[in-house]
Each structure stands twice: as C-alpha cells, then as structure tokens.
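Interim report to the steering committee. The following record documents the input for LysE family translocator (205 residues).
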Amino acid sequence: MPDFALLAVFIPTFFFVSITPGMCMTLAMTLGMSIGVRRTMWMMIGELVGVAIVAIAAVLGVASIMLNYPQIFDILKWIGGAYLCYIGINMWRARGKMAVIDGQQVNTRRLSLISQGFITAIANPKGWAFMISLLPPFISVDKPVAPQLLVLLSIIMVTESLSMLAYASGGKSLRLFLSRGNNIRWMNRIAGSLMILVGVWLALG
C-alpha cells in the first residue's frame, strides 16, 4: 500500500477537490431536493462506477509508461505538475458560481439515473486529466501496483460517496450556505492551494 506520508497528502487533497461544488455534486444536490436522497443514490452508483473506471485507466496507463519508458515519465511528471498548478490557479480565480442544472428534465427510472451519473463521470475530460495528473505520483513502481491502486481507489470511492451524500441530503440548507457570501470561493481557494502544492511537489519530487 502507499506510504502513510503519501496518504497524508492524498486524503485531504482529494477530499477538498471532491467536496468543492462541481457538476456531479450539484447534480446530487438537485436530485436530492427533487426526487429524494434514496432515489438519488442510483445516480451515485453510476457516478462511482464511472469515477472508478477513469481512475483505474489513468493509473494503469501511466504505470505502464513508468515501467517501460522512465524517461518519458520524468517529462510527464513536469507536465502533470504544471497542470495541477494550472487547476489550482483557476480554482483561485473562480468566481464561485455553482453549476446550473435546474430546470432540466430528470428521468427517475433507476437505469436512467445510473446512466446519468455514469456518463457525467466518464465523459468529463477534466476528470480524466485530473486523475492522470494526480493519481500516478502516489503509485510506487517499486511495489505491486494493484494493492496501492486498491487503497487509493477505496479512498476515492469513500470520499466521493460522502460528498455526494452530503450534497444530496443537505438540499436547501446546503444550497443556501453555498450561495451565501464567498463560501464557494473559499472552498475553491483551499482546494486550489492544495492543487498547487501537490503540483510543485510532483514536479520537484
């Protein structure tokens, strides 16, 4: 499994990125308010499956490059670090508006909800770029990849589940909190700062 020092960096970084309002979290909140938390969980299942596929594909793809082309991986480290810093800077500059999905027609069938969550997670190019940039630095080629990936994936699944559940069950109170003052902006800044620090650590590590 990954070193505890690496996990101490990964857990808070991914938590703040996950809890920051985005399309999936706003979707969970809107569905939670309109169709209830229990039915929203079907969307969560699809989203979690999509996120897991993206994470596994990202780690296995980059791990293959790490093993076969270590020189290229050194270049990817710098590119990944620069991209994470870019994400962090954009988070700092974000105005803090929530994704608008109100007014969209929602099919409440279970399969449709699962599909909606899955497509939202897997069709997001930023999600792919984020996973490719963030996850590989926490994987050591000197240890078996599978156990490390299992630990990181477990953390991702738990964090995403808790975040979506909080948004779905928070409903109107959470929306009021996020729309008040600079609350979203400060959440973005915390997550952005962590992204910048991890990006610098990745490039120089």
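Residues 99-104 have pLDDT under 50 and may be disordered. The committee is asked to note this result when reviewing the revised timeline.
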